[in-house]
Design brief:
alpha/beta, about 40% helix, about 270 residues
Length: about 270
């Protein structure tokens, strides 16, 4: 569960980078200027896309610990480019659904993640919020799916597919029932209860004909997710997917997929 191919992560990496909320990223960089040497945890790091984006922006002395349960993805992480200064990169193979206790790290200033939060359960988020508070760490968690998918041109079937995808989002992804689109607002509320000042900002994917490969991959993944939760033969789904495929092939398909970026700092 919660397995992702390196090819999929490589396909989304440049789109993720372009979609991040710039205001919130700038806020993180402002916060960083008030910090010394940074100890950073990147949860569900995959092959390192989040660190590759953030570390050069943060600058200065940094120790990154990249955590994932997939040793194959961790093995693909190359040293981050453009990170002069004292810079340390460590990988930790760990199942975040169960073994937080093994993370014996006394000081963490920043907990970050990208494209992870929607996989996690209520209990998993509560444990995450508790750990962040214990460390008094800032939290920067980006690209969490928000439940919105808008295709252009619209087709009959779009809303039905979106509702079923969002139902699938709540199935177990290894942490117990996942929160899917509710995860980012839920973590925001949990952190606020723990004395954090929290900001949520949108970071939608805006895909055009130049992103045909990513559109095909999403279409195929979403059709599979819908089949998984509605196992009876579904002609409407086959027809819908064929029409969508044709539009992508013709260069006539646009797609917006909503995400949230979250930045939280401890109130002093
Ligand atoms: C959508 S990918 C995002 C990867 C990376 N952050 C990025 O932006 O490219 C989600 C990542 O979470 C990891 N993951 C999922 N469930 C996990 C778990 N229980 N413990 C640790 N890592 C997990 C997956 O292996 C995968 O690398």
């Amino acid at each position: 569960m919660g397995r992702f191919s390196a090819d999929w992560l490589a396909l989304r990496e440049p789109v993720d980078a372009a979609s991040r909320n710039q205001e919130l990223t700038a806020r993180l960089c402002d916060w960083r200027r008030g910090q010394g040497h940074l100890s950073v945890l990147d949860l569900g790091s995959g092959a390192g896309a989040n660190g590759r984006f953030l570390a050069p922006l943060l600058g200065g002395g940094q120790h990154w610990r990249l955590i994932d349960h997939d040793p194959g993805l961790l093995a693909r992480i190359a040293p981050f480019p453009d990170c002069p200064g004292p810079f340390q990169l460590e990988t930790i193979c760990l199942d975040l659904a169960g073994s937080w206790e093994r993370l014996d790290i006394p000081q963490v200033q920043l907990v970050t993640a990208s494209a992870l939060l929607d996989l996690i359960s209520t209990d998993g988020l509560a444990r995450l919020a508790r750990r962040c508070q214990t460390w008094q760490a800032a939290v920067f968690i980006v690209l969490s799916y928000d439940g919105t998918i808008h295709w252009e041109p619209a087709l009959a079937g779009d809303d039905r597919v979106c509702k079923l995808i969002n139902r699938h989002q709540h199935t177990d992804k290894g942490f117990g029932p996942a929160l899917g689109p509710d995860a980012a607002p839920m973590l925001a509320a949990m952190l606020e209860e723990r004395g954090y000042q929290v900001e949520l900002q949108p970071s939608p994917w805006q895909l055009g004909p130049e992103h045909a490969s990513l559109q095909y991959a999403l279409l195929s993944g979403w059709a599979a997710a819908v089949r998984e939760i509605t196992p009876e033969p579904a002609d409407w789904l086959r027809i819908w997917a064929k029409q969508r495929e044709h539009l992508i092939e013709q260069g006539d398909s646009r797609l917006v997929v909503g995400h949230w970026d979250l930045f939280a700092t401890v109130n002093s």
